[in-house]
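// run 5 | inverse folding | seed 20
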């Protein structure tokens, strides 16, 4: 578990910096950054790159997801999710979930949160109106870690680190609709803006699996840097960025050709 937590703490900064941004009143944007060892979240004003406030949350905060009203943070040791109001930047609720929550994602309409519980092999589903867990899903794999939701809100993709698989959850039924085999020890996962392609970072394979969402078939495998932990796709859908833990690099994949052309 010590080694797993080290991986998580390295990965979370990359995820937060790339993905977790919110625009307030259409004018200013803020980034919410989890500070793993400090039990806090830093709120950064991206217009001037300064920390505007620091919010106290739970023990070993790691995953973060943001809507227009709230930021949601998984606290690994406490088995909770902290709900931060983005106007006041205060914790307004704390939700108990499964053991060792890591990845977290919110549906596009902001009504539900999906939380990957690493030690339970489950995903907790939270109603964001009541801030209560409405169901718990067994993912059918071992050590769920990364989580991403399709832009249409229909599918949740969960990486299972020890099973080398991705579980696909139907958000209408909250049932597992498919299990996809990936590379060795998948961690980060991202979906293209049009929902057509899923990208999975395979930690021990040093690869990214590229999956066609319509059929859940793998269409390509791209070699990247050493020990990739996270992946994100730019808003235009033209590039996928991969954070490599083993050699402190970022690989850039051209999504038109599925070729990695930068590793710096």
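// decoded
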């Amino acid at each position: 578990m010590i080694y797993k937590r080290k991986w998580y703490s390295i990965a979370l900064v990359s995820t937060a910096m790339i993905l977790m941004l919110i625009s307030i009143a259409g004018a200013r944007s803020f980034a919410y950054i989890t500070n793993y060892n400090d039990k806090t979240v830093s709120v950064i004003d991206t217009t001037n790159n300064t920390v505007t406030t620091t919010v106290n949350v739970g023990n070993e905060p790691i995953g973060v997801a943001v809507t227009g009203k709230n930021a949601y943070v998984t606290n690994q040791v406490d088995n909770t999710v902290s709900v931060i109001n983005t106007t006041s930047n205060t914790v307004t609720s704390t939700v108990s979930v499964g053991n060792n929550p890591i990845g977290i994602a919110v549906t596009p309409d902001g009504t539900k949160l999906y939380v990957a519980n690493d030690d339970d092999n489950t995903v907790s589903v939270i109603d964001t109106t009541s801030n209560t867990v409405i169901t718990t899903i067994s993912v059918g794999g071992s050590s769920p870690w990364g989580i991403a939701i399709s832009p249409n809100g229909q599918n949740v993709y969960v990486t299972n680190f020890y099973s080398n698989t991705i579980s696909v959850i139907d958000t209408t039924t909250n049932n597992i609709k498919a299990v996809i085999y990936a590379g060795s020890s998948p961690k980060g996962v991202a979906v293209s803006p049009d929902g057509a392609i899923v990208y999975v970072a395979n930690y021990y394979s040093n690869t990214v699996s590229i999956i066609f969402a319509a059929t859940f078939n793998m269409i390509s495998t791209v070699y990247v840097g050493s020990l990739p932990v996270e992946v994100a796709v730019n808003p235009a859908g033209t590039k996928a960025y991969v954070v490599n833990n083993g050699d402190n690099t970022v690989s850039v994949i051209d999504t038109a050709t599925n070729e990695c052309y930068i590793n710096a």
